[in-house]
């Protein structure tokens, strides 16, 4: 149906003729797109707006500067931006331009409304093609759409114009959205959104009484606006701020989210847009919860307690709102609102995963819902650490050893809680011992007794029933995670991989498990007040190890991306369980072998930023170090300790060992052998001569640290410098805290050497 015959035309015509009728300079775009960096919007805007004379003064060396003469007065063009573009040098593109692009753009300016509408629709259909899109941009299609198509009398033409901008924004880079923002696209969106709001809330005629064609046009424009707002919000933070500050646009979003008549596709686009805009956005969170016109927050909260795609997407919006408003476990919002109320709905969404055949038959929507639920759970798991930090519990322990502090002589353990200073540590007699980080362990696995281990594993993994979340009334989100989400996440981590969809689901499930495991691993379980958290986490963590980590590790999968995810998860579990990790006999050697495989990883693509501290090798070293701590068996500790010392000794000759692996190995040695009260300190560290090896390694570590570029890898350089300082102080401490028996043997060895020299 032609737009001029559409009854909804009157609802839009009141404002669209005046839309975007601004100075031509406000719509400069093509120069910035076709010649990036050569023009400035501000300079060009001032030049075209004021049309004043510009005097250019050039300074030449050894030349007297004459008087500047006035510029010649030139006749200004009617539209200084709409200049004729040069034909492309590529013959194929030149032919395409002459045969297809120029005729359709000519029709877009045709006086007849029907021709304009058809041309706008045709451009919307062909703009997805890369070559066509490039030519259209050269011919300033954006300028034409903004100044002519969106102000057309035909609503069909305007709908096609919004579709053109949407597709361009989807296909081009984020810079395109930034340019649209600078062209004041939000003003155009505001007017279009107001028209749609007026149409939806009109009582004469009521929206439901409009023809299907009229309703279709409204939803098509709404879809284009939502997609543009979503892409604009992702492009730059300042654009998000401008969108949220626009009351008309916010009302438009709230109205669509709160209306039951919104079609499913439009509703999903609305919630997707709100999810993007609500991330770390206090203003939008406050506006939504205070909204009394549409009561959007109440609608979403009710929706989040249900099931289906809308419920999962509502959970995503609410999670962002809760986070921005700081509605945490210890400071819940309205009616106790916090992330805990969302986990049940998200967990139910994980129960039905489509098979590859179902996806091939067109049932891919359920798979997308599962992936979205997993992503939201992963975000909640990461944000839970903030809840723990701000709650009435002790601060989480540091993730890495921060050096040694000098304290009066007489302590038996090194203090590893404080950061070292360069001027400390000159007095060897004032070194103190590391505080023991033993966790509250109610059950110990006897690693030497395989039968007992298997029986214990059977108790943990024999049933898939929800775990007992223990006494976690003050941490309802963590309790809901342990009791509801983790069993489903463990199941999905071992999902049968029969297609790309299930591979993505497995990866997202491991990410969610990883986030929650790392959050819990930062809790200091040596504090008695955290014992209830450990009691609730212990069985869940053991099941994650046995049913999610062990099967993949034992399978010797060649997928290094999957191995990196598993290694990160295993490190987090090992940090929290320590010696209580349910290791199978010889399982630690799997991680040693995985480390060797990590050294042969292909180098990242050029230009791709990679965090060296997140490498597979670093994670394998971290796992092994965590397994060797606390009450680990002597043989296990010795094997891992020898591996770490060998790694340090080999780093100078073996160039495949990354510096980050070396730094992590040094830090793990500090953590393992920092307490002389542990049995393996005497049986392994001293008897195997680790101190002598570390003394020989110290100059190599200094050279390694100096070789790290501060500008390119600042964090790694800082950690390497810290490791050098700590190793110096660690060796001084060990020298003054050697076992008495060891001191006697050293004295005897020195006397024997002197006697041999005299002979």
UniProtKB/TrEMBL annotation:
Q: What is this protein called?
A: SYO1-like TPR repeats domain-containing protein
Tell me which SUPFAM superfamilies the record gives.
ARM repeat (SSF48371)
Kindly give the InterPro entries that the UniProt entry links to this protein: ARM-like, ARM-type_fold, Armadillo, SYO1-like, TPR_SYO1
Bias class Basic residues marks the residues at 66-75
| Organism in which the protein naturally occurs | Podospora pseudopauciseta
Which residues lie in Basic and acidic residues bias regions?
389-407, 738-752
Q: Which Pfam families match?
A: TPR_SYO1 (PF25567)
Q: Where in the sequence does UniProt note compositional bias of the Acidic residues kind? A: 424-448
Q: Where is this region: Disordered?
A: 66-92, 389-448, 738-759
- UniProt similarity note: Belongs to the nuclear import and ribosome assembly adapter family.
SYO1-like TPR repeats domain: which residues? 504-736
Q: Where are the transmembrane segments?
A: none
């Amino acid at each position: 149906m032609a737009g001029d015959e559409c009854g909804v035309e009157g609802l839009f015509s009141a404002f669209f003729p005046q839309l975007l009728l601004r100075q031509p300079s406000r719509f400069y775009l093509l120069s910035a797109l076709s010649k990036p960096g050569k023009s400035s919007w501000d300079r060009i805007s001032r030049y075209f707006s004021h049309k004043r004379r510009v005097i250019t003064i050039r300074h030449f060396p050894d030349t007297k500067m004459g008087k500047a003469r006035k510029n010649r007065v030139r006749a200004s063009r009617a539209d200084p931006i709409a200049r004729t573009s040069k034909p492309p040098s590529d013959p194929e593109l030149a032919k395409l331009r002459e045969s297809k692009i120029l005729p359709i753009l000519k029709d877009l300016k045709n006086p007849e409304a029907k021709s304009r509408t058809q041309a706008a629709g045709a451009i919307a259909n062909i703009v997805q093609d890369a070559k066509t899109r490039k030519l259209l941009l050269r011919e300033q299609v954006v300028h034409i759409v903004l100044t002519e198509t969106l102000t057309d009398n035909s609503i069909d033409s305007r709908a096609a114009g919004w579709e053109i901008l949407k597709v361009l924004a989807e296909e081009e880079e984020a810079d395109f959205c930034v340019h649209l923002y600078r062209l004041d696209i939000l003003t155009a969106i505001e007017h279009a959104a107001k028209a749609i709001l007026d149409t939806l809330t009109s009582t004469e005629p009521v929206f439901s009484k409009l023809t299907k064609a009229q309703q279709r046009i409204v939803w098509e424009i709404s879809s284009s606006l939502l997609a543009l707002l979503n892409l604009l919000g992702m492009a730059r933070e300042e654009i998000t701020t401008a969108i949220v500050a626009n009351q008309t646009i916010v009302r438009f979003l709230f109205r669509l989210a709160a209306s039951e008549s919104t079609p499913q596709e439009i509703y999903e686009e609305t919630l997707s847009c709100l999810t993007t805009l609500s991330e770390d956005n206090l203003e939008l969170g406050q506006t939504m919860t205070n909204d009394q016109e549409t009561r959007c927050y109440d609608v979403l909260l009710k929706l989040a307690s249900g099931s289906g795609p809308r419920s999962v997407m509502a959970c995503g919006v609410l999670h962002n709102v809760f986070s921005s408003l700081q509605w945490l476990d210890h400071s819940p919002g309205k009616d106790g609102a916090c992330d805990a109320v969302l986990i049940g709905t998200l967990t139910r969404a994980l129960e039905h995963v489509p098979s590859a055949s179902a996806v091939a038959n067109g049932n891919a929507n359920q798979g997308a819902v599962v992936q979205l639920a997993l992503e939201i759970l992963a975000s909640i798991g990461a944000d839970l650490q903030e809840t723990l930090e701000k709650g009435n519990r002790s601060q989480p322990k540091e993730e890495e050893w921060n050096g040694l502090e000098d304290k009066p002589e007489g302590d038996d353990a090194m203090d590893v809680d404080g950061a070292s200073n360069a001027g400390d540590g000159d007095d060897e007699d004032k070194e103190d011992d590391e505080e023991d980080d033993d966790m509250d362990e109610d059950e110990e696995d006897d690693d030497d007794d395989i039968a007992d281990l298997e029986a214990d594993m059977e108790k943990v993994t024999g049933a898939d029933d929800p775990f007992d979340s223990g006494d976690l009334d003050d941490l309802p989100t963590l309790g809901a995670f342990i009791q509801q989400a983790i069993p489903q996440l463990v199941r999905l981590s071992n999902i049968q991989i029969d297609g790309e969809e299930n591979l993505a689901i497995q990866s997202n499930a491991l990410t969610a498990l990883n986030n929650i495991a790392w959050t819990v691993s930062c809790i200091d379980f040596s504090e008695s007040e955290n014992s209830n958290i450990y009691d609730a986490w212990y069985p869940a963590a053991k099941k994650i190890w046995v049913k999610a980590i062990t099967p993949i590790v034992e399978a010797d999968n060649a997928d290094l991306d999957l191995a990196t995810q598993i290694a990160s998860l295993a490190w987090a579990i090992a940090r929290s369980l320590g010696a209580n990790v349910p290791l199978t006999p010889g399982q630690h050697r799997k991680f040693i072998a995985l480390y060797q495989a990590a050294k042969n990883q292909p180098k990242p693509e050029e230009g791709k930023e990679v965090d060296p501290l997140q490498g597979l090798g670093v994670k394998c070293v971290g796992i092994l170090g965590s397994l060797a701590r606390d009450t680990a068996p002597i043989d296990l500790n010795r094997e891992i300790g020898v591996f770490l010392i060998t790694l340090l000794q080999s780093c100078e000759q073996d160039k495949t060992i990354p510096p980050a692996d070396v730094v992590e190995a040094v830090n793990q040695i500090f953590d393992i052998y920092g307490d002389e009260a542990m049995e393996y300190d005497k049986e392994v560290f001293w008897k195997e001569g680790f101190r002598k090896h570390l003394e020989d390694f110290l100059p190599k570590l200094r050279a390694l640290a100096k070789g790290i570029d501060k500008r390119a890898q600042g964090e790694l350089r800082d950690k390497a410098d810290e490791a050098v300082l700590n190793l110096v102080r660690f060796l001084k401490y060990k020298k003054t805290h050697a076992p008495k028996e060891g001191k006697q043997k050293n004295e005897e060895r020195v006397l024997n050497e002197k006697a041999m020299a005299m002979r």
